[in-house]
Amino acid sequence: MYTLILILFLIVCILMTITILMQSSKGGGLAG
To answer: How far apart are alpha carbons 32 and 15 in whole angstroms?
Structure first.
């Protein structure tokens, strides 16, 4: 059960990181 939660948490972190990288590569957004 805890493994599933950990995997979901890691997926969310990865998605957030990708989103921030995409925004920063575009030269704008909340990521700066």
So the answer is: 17
